[in-house]
Amino acid sequence: MNIDGKLQRNRHGSCALVGAGPGDPELLTVKAVKAIQAATLLLVDDLVHEGVVALAAPRARVVYVGKRGGCKSTSQAFIERLMITAVYRGEAVVRLKGGDPFIFGRGGEEVEHLQAAGIAVSVVNGITAGLAAVTSLGVPLTHREHAQGVMLVTGHARTGIAGTDWKTLAATAHSARLTLVIYMGVSNAAHIQEELLCCLPADTPVALIQDATLVSQRHAVCTLARLHRTLEQEQISSPSVIVIGDVLRGLTAAKITIPVAKRSA
Questions:
Q1: Is 34 one of the catalytic residues?
Q2: What is the 3-state secondary structure (H, E, C) of 157-183?
């Protein structure tokens, strides 16, 4: 990987994994914008905002290779073959991924396959949804009085691999005073809640944030004992982030709504 901020070229084309951030196009990094504008081929994830894709050069080809839980998805193997083939054709390929490529974005898998094919890869970080979601509520992920660290966890394990040990995770979060940020946890929320309650107090505050940073953002604040019930009552659905921990204590008195400014497309 390169470290000088430029797309690293090999003897054929080039390839960059670019983080598109949580949704709002204004949260892109300058480096991400430059990479998108230089691309001749963009392979775009399902959750990337259309305003981000609109930054591509007029002649660039845009291919949507969305991957959503419970929906028909483009296979990972096909995406990796497409990236490698395009680079060998001399294309400037940008794999545009929601959030950050290296946080639950399969970026590590793609880098491994590309490097095995002799292709140098640049990685451009993006703001991850877990950070943007809680920031939209005016709350930090860490606080000297409430949370000494953060754990980012997926609620959706890969098929064939043992899922998260939620009881152990809860015990660690409780003893070490950590904030839990759960991605892709909506469909498994009832089980997650039951397991976490084994070691976390029932009144531990929870924030449920859907469509973070977008005009469509919705959220609800509750306690761990009411996590699944609140998801159902408020009809919070994917894509959503579940944040759990004492940094949210100031939000538990009432469900609040912080306006999100309308974003340009």
A1: no
A2: CCCCCCCCCHHHHHHHHHHHCEEEEEE
